[in-house]
Amino acid sequence: MKIKLINNYITDNSNECTKNCYFLKSDFNAKYEKDALENGANIVDLNEAKNLLGVSKDIKIVGITGTNGKTTTAAAIYSTLLDLGYNVFLCGTRGAFVNEEKVDEKGLTTSSPIKILSYLDIATKNKCDFFIMEVSSHAIAQNRVEGIDFSLKIFTNLTQDHLDYHKTFSEYARVKSSFFMDDKTTKIINSDDENIKYSFKNTLTYSIKKVATYSLVAYSIKDGINAIVKTPDGEIMIDSDLVGEFNLYNLLAAFVAVKVLTKKTNEEIKKALSNFGGVEGRVEVVNENPKVIVDFAHTPDGIEKVLNALKANDMIVVFGAGGDRDRTKRPLMGAMVERFARTPIITSDNPRSEDPNLIIKDILEGFKFKEKAIIISDRKEAIKKALSLVKGKEIIVILGKGDENYQEIKGVKYPFSDKEVVKEILKEI
């Protein structure tokens, strides 16, 4: 990738290097530094590259990490800051956005250093006050966020995921914790989660269950979210149409973040936050009759949070598990769906290089009563089966892919959207 300068450019690819260009060196590509030098490039780090581009030093960068909740929390902060009149850049799982305009498609949760640099360049040109980014454990472990001067770091939660990469939960927790060990940066920590370690200096906490800097006096999640929040500046009521305790955590984190970043009054923040309508593909109702909900949940904890929020309903749940990822979570996902679903339908997610039927077999190991599960490996046929089973007031919950518009099989990404498939099938019925 190249970033243009006046009469020059910055690249992270040594094969693109020519005399006097700039090679952005990071841990990611350090082994190619010699090749870049041989091609005549000048070697620069992220800070030097930012100076070359004239990236504004006034942009406050916010990094959000955790197993679940990153995307919704980031989107809630972005939405609230926009409503308060600020210019804001957002990047993460859903792509990149600046002031409500989409500027890049979906990619990695946390992009490569050169991509982040290009985003900071766009943010500067759009006079952004804030830069909100999701930070994955992979990015922390691979030093993809090295050289980024965060103004604020936020921790959502930590549950099992990515053990295919980190191997053990303790290593996963260590990597996440390393993001919060510095004394300088302001940190916002979910103190209900005991799996994280952090420096107490410059740290604020939020909690639903404990005494914290920002805690709850009372709350209800029966019809949307209604919560009385105790803050250092007095109590405030947060109202939202979002569902579930997990979204209450997301909104609470977003409220604290905006308070720290802007020093606006509680009432101003509450009003702007209440306008946030959620994120596409996160507990998104894609059809009303029958009611069909799609969600991105793809971990045992994520599934539990979503289905627990919907447990007042009889649920037909369609789900699978991704291939070439943590196999140990598959039976745990199965057990969680069996616990909540009236009718579980196990299907294919993104099998990648694996055999979908072997993934399904792993999931089925988590079921106490395996005969309860309906197995249909073709995802479209599984969704069609779910729609055919609806009688009365049951709802269909389709988990795992959310707003993804592809299904990855044997290295090929085929067009596939759960939402569009539902609409297509309903037209045929």
From TrEMBL:
Q: What are the residue boundaries of the Mur ligase C-terminal domain, all occurrences included?
A: 281-402
Q: Which residues form a coiled coil?
A: none
Q: Name one GO cellular component term.
A: cytoplasm
Q: What is its main location?
A: cytoplasm
Which cofactor names does the annotation list?
Mg(2+)
* The keyword DNA-binding is assigned to this record: no
Q: Which pathway does the record list?
A: Cell wall biogenesis; peptidoglycan biosynthesis
Residue ranges of domain Mur ligase central in the record = 64-257
- Which residues does the annotation say bind ATP? 66-72
Identify the residues that bind meso-2,6-diaminopimelate: 325, 349-352, 400, 404
The record's annotation in Pfam families points to:
Mur_ligase_C, Mur_ligase_M
A biological-process GO annotation:
cell wall organization
Protein role: Catalyzes the addition of meso-diaminopimelic acid to the nucleotide precursor UDP-N-acetylmuramoyl-L-alanyl-D-glutamate (UMAG) in the biosynthesis of bacterial cell-wall peptidoglycan.
The protein in question is named UDP-N-acetylmuramoyl-L-alanyl-D-glutamate--2,6-diaminopimelate ligase
